[in-house]
Amino acid sequence: MEPSIQRYNKIAVEYEDGSDGWQTGPLSLIKNAEPDMQKFELLKQLVSSIHPQSKDDVCFIDAHKQMIQVVPELVGESDLFVLYNVDHHHDMGYDNDRNINEKTGELNIDSSNWVCALTGFYPERFLQYVWIGNQNSNTEVKDLQLMRPDYIITINLEAFMDVHFDKVILCRSNAWVPPAARHLYDELQKILVDNIENI
What we know:
Elements: H1 4-12, H2 20-23, H3 26-30, H4 37-48, E1 58-61, H5 67-75, E2 81-86, H6 114-121, E3 126-132, E4 152-154, E5 168-171, H7 183-197
Helix pairs in contact: 4-7
């Protein structure tokens, strides 16, 4: 997602008045962003170190809001789990706005708050959340008021190279990836598929 999100944040300021440029959505603002290949190589190194036991341990999705469906399916009905999220955003909800439905009082689950939703759905099973963001990710306290003390916020992806991941979810997030860089997702997906086939 980086540097797409950097370009989006910079340009979006120019459209805060609600002009047509803002309404066209993020892809129109980041279509010319170049991927950070140094960071991608690091991510590829991490993905290459993951060797799922079977195809049932890997899931490929298109949008983060799908995590609400796939996480319970992957971890089972009673298993405890630690969630690692490599992403520019923490996805706990933003600016103290948890996207609550005014009529029902329930959380409207989307790509910005799915971690917050999982925390509420599985408070006893959700042991820990490890968010691995970027150096310029927003870690302001006002956005993270629902983070438990045992949650971890870091930008050091290298520290997790030796972690044994039981399950893997790879999200395409095309809304934040310029078309010219989408082949990088396919490259990561192929690595995981090859690792399964080579068990």
